[in-house]
């Protein structure tokens, strides 16, 4: 009798798995819009465009990337959240989905989108122009401490993750968040151009977003906000070692979808993206950026978003910038 019960359970499990796999076969039959909440040329845009190209090849329908900037990231994330959950709109929701509501910019949270896959998780950095008088992060922070409000920085919108990277670091080092004034931008690409033009003194995007300019000798990296060396730039000092506070911060980029997307569509996209991320083509693309391959499925991504929302919320509160909570 025991053996029969075990066999029945095994058969039931096999049938359930087969049914679940069979249900994971949705395919788009017309063009798909891929919303990027940030400007063209940044890491989010670059990674998303490559994925869109590879999804187009897989599904044989156009995947059209649309940059919906504005509102400090609110416009694009709202467009992702409020679209019809029919599979024909997906988007590159970023870590700002965990910060915007803490800054009082919107009521939108990670609970208002459907997470599908984690595709990138870069750490922040401190970048300055080649002509900057600062040769180290310590020199820069010492100057800021002695001359509060003189220096300016950029990297993203007000309340964006690269803004929080700076404000959180300053707070951790015992400085007011406004010790270095933040100049909002539509993303890292425009912030880097502002740095080159002399409009700001520093930027705090991911280290790899500055790769082209670093390699060209136009800017220099003073610090990497991580406890592990960058694969591309292992000699860049780590904030975990350089700063008394040990401050670190990383962002993330996802492929997500409108709220309440049916499970079979989520499953189909997740499976397709996992297959793409495991290809040699994707690995070579990431390597060209100096970045490792990163992957997390929908369940892992939801857990990550939940953890980040609490942790970043605590940081926003600590720097005295939380509103409407």
TrEMBL record:
Top-level taxon: Bacteria
Keywords: Signal
Listed SUPFAM superfamilies: Periplasmic binding protein-like II
Signal peptide interval: 1-22
Family as reported in the entry's similarity comment: Belongs to the UPF0065 (bug) family.
PANTHER family, sorted: BLR1237 PROTEIN, TRICARBOXYLATE-BINDING PROTEIN
Protein name: Tripartite tricarboxylate transporter substrate binding protein
